[in-house]
Design brief:
The chain is mainly α and 380 residues long. The protein is built from 14 helices and four strands. The longest helix is centred in the C-terminal third of the chain and has 42 residues, at 266-307. Residues 258-264 and 346-351 have low confidence and may be disordered.
């Protein structure tokens, strides 16, 4: 079953990529004829260069991530929001940093290259980044419901309704996922509505108050619109990455398009240098987006503490941590392709690498932050 699931996942991703390419080629053929061939979207022409660029990009990405981990890994490990105001300020500053980085990159590319070329590249890159994300977002509830065998549960719905009333929000649909390990996740789409899923394992792991705290955490994600926020911010580094990749391709073709003979034009080298710079920047911005995701997990924890108590939220996290450390179920998360759906985090120290690349902060940080909320009014 595991092998079959992986095969289905790989086939689904391949189909999604093919569909994305087809849609983009159709749009380009209507709006900008000739542009697609210039950046290598049409088949059988310079496709082999994409493989070379892939190797270069992957090597560059790994190198940049190692350098980032060595440079700021220890700093990330020590960063814990000291209170709710500090958390909100961190979310705002991180968001502004990502947006400012995107604006700077666009101005930088426009300054170095032709404005029309830069605009065209960014539009195409946005399509590359947006279409798969949009499709995934729209159909995610259906995929998750099938993968986890989620079913509606009237008793769980009553608990979710009660917690949602305390939160002052409309309750999402409550479903039980047939999984033996404890987990909970919130997911939604404009087509299929909002859901909160609780696994059968979670009912056996946490107390009644802990269950309500975890539900409050998931309701916080819906209330704060975290799925949409992180998806939108995730488009920024993805778009910049694709622009960099296109420029690498254009530069490579410009210098080696005559049967392998090198051209003397300096334009190709400029495109390649700018492409490398943009890929590096996209990795830096992706690290910032992951940081924003971890901060919003803290914010969801605060919401769970608000609708129950900090003690209930802390108790639930401790129960989850004890379970995963004592049963070896952490390996299941480590091998999972959908780790962002797990409320538990594997983010522990290896020069800060795991935490830097995680969507969730480690448990000890979440508990430390929740302890700072004890006895205070929580606005989340």
């Amino acid at each position: 079953m595991i092998v079959r699931g992986k095969i289905m996942l790989i086939l689904s991703m391949l189909l999604l990529v093919v569909f994305t390419l087809v849609v983009i080629q159709i749009i380009l053929s209507l709006l900008a004829p000739g542009v697609a061939e210039t950046i290598g979207l049409y088949p059988f022409r310079f496709w082999w260069m994409w493989w070379i660029i892939d190797i270069v990009v992957y090597g560059l990405s790994i190198t940049v991530l190692i350098l980032i981990g060595l440079g700021i890994g220890r700093f990330i490990e020590k960063r814990i929001p000291i209170d709710l105001d500090h958390l909100k300020a961190s979310m705002i500053s991180t968001s502004l940093a990502v947006i400012s980085g995107a604006i700077f990159v666009f101005m930088f590319v426009t300054y170095l290259l032709d404005y029309q070329l830069a605009t065209t590249l960014f539009i195409i890159a946005i399509l590359f980044a947006l279409i798969p994300s949009l499709i995934s977002w729209l159909v995610a509830p259906a995929i998750i419901n099938v993968m986890y065998r989620c079913r509606y549960d009237p008793q769980l719905q009553k608990i979710v309704d009660r917690v949602a009333t305390r939160a002052g929000m409309k309750p999402p649909k409550a479903v039980v996922a047939e999984m033996p390990i404890p987990n909970a996740f919130a997911y939604s789409s404009p087509l299929m509505g909002r859901y909160v899923a609780i696994t059968t394992g979670l009912f056996k792991t946490v107390s009644r108050d802990g269950l309500e705290a975890v539900i409050g955490h998931e309701l916080g994600h819906h209330k704060h619109r975290d799925n949409a926020v992180i998806m939108l911010f995730g488009l920024i580094p993805s778009t910049i990455y694709f622009v960099g990749r296109f420029l690498l391709y254009i530069g490579f073709v410009d210098r080696y398009s005559d049967g392998g003979e090198r051209r003397r034009s300096g334009g190709g080298m400029l495109f390649m240098i700018v492409g490398v710079v943009l890929i590096v920047v996209s990795i830096l911005l992706q690290v910032a987006v992951l940081s924003l995701s971890r901060l919003r997990e803290h914010y969801a924890d605060a919401h769970g503490a608000k609708v129950t108590s900090p003690f209930a939220m802390i108790g639930a996290l401790k129960s989850l941590d004890q379970f995963y450390r004592s049963t070896g179920a952490r390996k299941l998360i480590a091998d999972s392709k959908i780790k962002p759906l797990f409320i538990y985090s594997l983010a522990e120290s290896l020069v800060g690498f795991e935490e830097m690349l995680s969507t969730h902060p480690p448990i000890y940080k979440r508990i430390a932050f929740l302890e700072s909320l004890i006895g205070k009014e929580i606005e989340a």
